[in-house]
Fold DUF7931 domain-containing protein.
Amino acid sequence: MDTEHILGKSDSAIQVTDFARCQSLINELVQQATSSLHIFDINLSTELFNSTIFIEALRHLLSSNSHSSIDVLVADTERSRRNAPQLFQLARRSPSHVQIRQSDRAYHHAFVVADTTGYLDHRMGTGHEAEVNFNHPAQARSLVGFFKDVWNRSPVPADAQGLNL
C-alpha cells in the first residue's frame, strides 16, 4: 500500500488516466476502509472487483468491524455475477453486511466511496479518467447521497431471496 495516500488525511485530488492506476487506487481505498464501502458500477469489472487483493480487503473490513457495511449497486446483476463471483459469494455469506442491488437504470457513472471520506469517481465515456481523493468528506457524502437515492429507487433483484442479497 502506498503510504502517501492515507484515508482521512491525504486531501489532494488525484487525476487518473489509466486502468492500472485506477485499479491500484481502488485497492488502496478499500484496504484502508474501516466502516463502510459504497460501490456504484455498471457490471463490476472482473479486473477491479474480483481480484484477490480486492476481495481480501473486503474480508478484512468485515472481520475487523462487526458493524461494517458494503453496499453495491449495479445496472446488470447477471453480468456482474459473472464478472465478480467472489463478491457475490461474500454477499451470500454475509448478507447483513454485504448487500447488492440492481439500479433502476444504467448510469454513465461509477464510483467507490470508503468510509464516507475518500472516493474514486469515474464518469463513463471518458476512458479510464477518474478523480480520486482520500480525504474529501463533502464530495464523498455527495456521492453517497446520490448512491442512497438510487438505492432507494432500485428493486431488489428477483433472485435475491435465493442469494440472501
Q: What stands out?
A: The chain has one domain: 14-155. The chain has a mean pLDDT of 92.
